[in-house]
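Hello forum,

I keep getting stuck at the same step: I have a sequence, I want structure tokens, and every attempt I make locally crashes halfway through. Rather than fight my setup again tonight, could one of you with a working pipeline run this one for me? It's a single chain of 191 residues.
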Amino acid sequence: MESILKSIKKKRIPINPAIVISNKPNAKGLKVAEKLGVKTLVIESKGFKGSRWQYDKKIVEALTENGVTSRNGLVCLAGFMRIISPEFVKKYKNRILNIHPALLPAFPGLDSQKQALDYGSKYSGCTVHFVDAGMDTGPVIIQSVVKIKENDTEETLSKRILKEEHKIYPEAVNLFARKKIKVSGRRTIIS
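Reply #2:
Ran it on my machine without issues. Output:
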């Protein structure tokens, strides 16, 4: 998120960040967003009694109130460790981006770096993709490959992948903002 907001501030991405929403009041990203002059909001999920859609409706209402609509908006997930409802995904179809620390479709879900190391993979990396109703199954926009070293640990591999994430997530947002991404079935075409 910080890389995206800094790229916007430097005018590298032609988009206006409307709001940063977190489900955790102590999320580091809230302070980062405030420091960069972006409005923030906390919609706590801990202890929420209701369906995923009932929770997500609160987010959709906040997005809409801040001008992020299903026609003109873009939702970027960054550190948001909740599975969003199918209704939210449908409302913002091909307008929700996520980043995952693996070369999807390999190693979806949690602990991707550990999965890659345990599997004996020679390469890992990160993927920016559109969000669909599955877990880490949406159309891939950009990927970056990271070679796994013999002495890598989850921590060392994660740090190298994170550096790549900071490069490709702003790049994907920029492509979206410039209307350079076309989705055709499961594929994305970058013009």
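The chain has one domain: 2-190. If your local run keeps crashing, start a new thread with the error log.
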